[in-house]
Write a structure and sequence with these properties.
Blueprint (H helix, E strand, L loop, with lengths): L3 E2 L3 E6 L14 E2 L2 E6 L3 E6 L2 E9 L2 E5 L3 E10 L2 E5 L3 E3 L2 E3 L6 E5 L4 E3 L2 E3 L4 E5 L3 E3 L7 E10 L10 E12 L4 E5 L4 E7 L4 E5 L1
Parallel strand pairs: 1-3, 2-4, 3-5, 4-6, 5-7, 6-8, 7-9, 8-10, 8-11, 9-12, 10-13, 11-14, 12-15, 13-16, 14-17, 15-17, 17-18, 18-19, 18-20, 19-21
Amino acid sequence: LASLVTSGNVSLTAGNGAIADANGTATNVAASGLVAASTAGIDLDTAVTTAAATVSAAGAITLDEADGATFTNVTTADGAVTITSGGTMNAVNVVADGASRDVTIGTTAGDLVVDLVEAKHGNVNLTAAGRILENPDADVDVAGATVNLNAGTGIGTGAEALELSADVLNAATSTGGIYLTEANGITLNSVVAQHGDVRLINL
């Protein structure tokens, strides 16, 4: 795919193959909303408000968003998921299935707000220029074998901790505190809050 531009929504389906980036780092889809589905992978540069992407067989998802966006449903059956954005990102449901398939999400500006990010059989890597926050609820926000969290100005808050289900944790902030809860036992490999508190509650 080279370039699609609309003020409305875009729906892309590859019933027997991948949706591939055909123009390098230039934007592939500029639209209000994007829904993409394939059987063999999705790789797109976007400028959208909302996005959903699913791969139903073996294949990865790579989305590079120019600004901030809400990723409502990004899932793979057997593939890694990589999402980057140039502004605040809302990750509503981002799930990678398959052995050793990781989820890697990052913002180069703004916060990362998480509802559910899960690597069913791999690791989760979250990076935010600002804060990593949860969408306030009682459910697990981040699940993976090893969870790596790196934020500029804080992870969770005193009122709304980020809820984890992980075996191993690495977490760091440049400024601000780290506030987490863990659903099961966890190994704290490295947890460093520069100029902030650390609070981890094992539920």
